[in-house]
Each structure stands twice: as C-alpha cells, then as structure tokens.
Amino acid sequence: MLYGLTFGYFIGLYFGVGSLFLFVCKVLERKGILNKIKSIAVPKDQIAFEIKHSVKSIVIFGFSIIPIVFLIRKGVIELLPNTWSNILIGIVILSLWNEVHFYLVHRLMHQKFMMRHVHFIHHKSRIPTVYSVFSFHWVEALLLSTVPVTIAPFVPFSIIAIFIYPLISILLNFAGHCNYRFGSGKGKGWKLFGTHHNEHHSRGRQNYGFALHLLDKIFSRHNK
C-alpha cells in the first residue's frame, strides 16, 4: 500500500505535472518569453527511451519512502508539527541539501566506470526534454532517491515538507531539462533558470549542479 502510493505519486508528477510544464513552456515560447536552447527536433525514439527508463526509475523511487517510515517508527527520524513555518523551512533545507547531494552523485556518475556503465543512459538525451528528468540506470536512480533519508535522521522535518519536496524537485528538474530558457539567454542572470543543466547534456562536462551553479563555481578548477 505504502509503495503503491509513492509509486503513484511519482507517476503523477512525471506524466501529469510534466505534461502541464511542457504545455506552459510552449505557450510562453509563443509569447516570446521562452526560447529554445537547441532548436533541433528531438526524435520520437528518444522520447520513448526516456519514458521507458523513467518508469524504471520511478519503480525504484517507490521504495524510497520505506526506509523513512522505518526510521520514523524506530525513533531515529523526528517529525516536526505541520506548521507553515516548519513546512517552508523544511522545503528550503531539503532543496539546499539536494544541491549538495546531487552534485556529489553527479560527479561520481562522471567517473569513467560509472559514465560508461551507468550514467550513459541519462546522457543518451543529448538534447534533454521534460521526459528525460528520470531517465536513469537503476543504480543512479537508487542513489538519487536517497535525498530525504540521508538528512532526515540529523535534521527534523515536517512530514508534509518531505511529501511536498518531490514536487519542488521535479519542477526544478523540468526547468533543467526542458530545453527552454528565459529570453535570449544572454548575460549571467538569464542562466539562473535551468540553462546550466540543459547545456550539460550537450557538452557532457561542467555544470554538474542541480538548479544552482554555486558548487560548480566553488569547485570550478576540478570541473574542467
């Protein structure tokens, strides 16, 4: 039951929110607010590949709630009251932790062995789409699913913050894979909105961060 609810939640985020996100991007493109980063058409077989591997990843993500519930019952994870402040602060902390967690996992994925045998699946999407957000090898999906469980034993959260966070995460993920950017993309300010990770797919190196570019700047000497 618990697995089914979590699996269904991620399926709804991927297909439901993803379709809505893409629709909004196309509307904003017609209004001249968004522009394509790469204007090349994405082949249908790439979309099919992405959906196939994303569903496999969601099967893995469905198990992510189980260790959290287990640790809650064991008293290892402490839950805070579901107040507005606890929810908001929890989402902010989870978002910041995800930046660190994703950066570390992503750098690991770009080591020679992992790139050749694991991360290559995600980089099949040379031009990313909203459907490539979860297109992973199962090992990468497993590692990326551990964001809440790797911090919740040390920092108490509201359960609603933990529940809402995947929605925030996937929205940022869509922004990083949708192949759109605000305006012309000229100037440093424009690159805040997802451009870095979109460009990572075509370049294969640099831009290892999730939504922010901070850790890439801090460790820039090691990203080249």
From TrEMBL:
Alphabetical list of InterPro entries matching this protein: Fatty_acid_hydroxylase, Sterol_Desaturase_Related
Tagged with keyword Transmembrane: yes
GO BP: lipid biosynthetic process
The keyword Translocase is annotated on this UniProt entry: no
Chain ranges passing through the membrane: 6-28, 54-72, 84-106, 127-151, 157-176
Pfam families per record: FA_hydroxylase
Boundaries of every Fatty acid hydroxylase domain copy: 92-219
GO CC terms, sorted: membrane
GO molecular function, one term: oxidoreductase activity
Superkingdom of source: Bacteria
Location relative to the cell: Membrane
Keywords of this entry: Membrane, Transmembrane, Transmembrane helix
Protein name listed in UniProt: Fatty acid hydroxylase family protein
Species of provenance: Zobellia galactanivorans (strain DSM 12802 / CCUG 47099 / CIP 106680 / NCIMB 13871 / Dsij)
